[in-house]
Amino acid sequence: MSVRPSAVALTPLLVFLALFFGAGLYYTAQGEPMGFYQLRAPVAILPALALGLWLARRRGVPPQATLLSGMGESNVMLMCLIFLLAGAFAMVSKGVGAVDAVVALGLGALPPALILPGLFLVASFVSLSIGTSMGTVAAVVPIALGVADAAGLDRVLVTGAVLGGAMFGDNLSIISDTTIAATRSQGAEMRDKFRENLRIAAPAALVTVLMLATMGESSPVPPSESTASPWLVLPYLLVLVLAVAGIDVVLVLGIGIVAAGLAGLGLAPEYGPVDFVGDIYAGFESMVEITLLSILIGGLAALIKATGGLDWLAGVIARFARGHTGRRSGELSIAALAAGTDALTANNTVAILVSGSLARDIAQRHGISPRRAASVLDIFACVLQGVLPYGAQVLLAASLGALSPLALAGSVHYCWLLALSAFAFMLWPRRKAAATQAG
Question: From CA 23, how far away is CA 161, in angstroms rounded?
Answer without folding.
Answer: 30
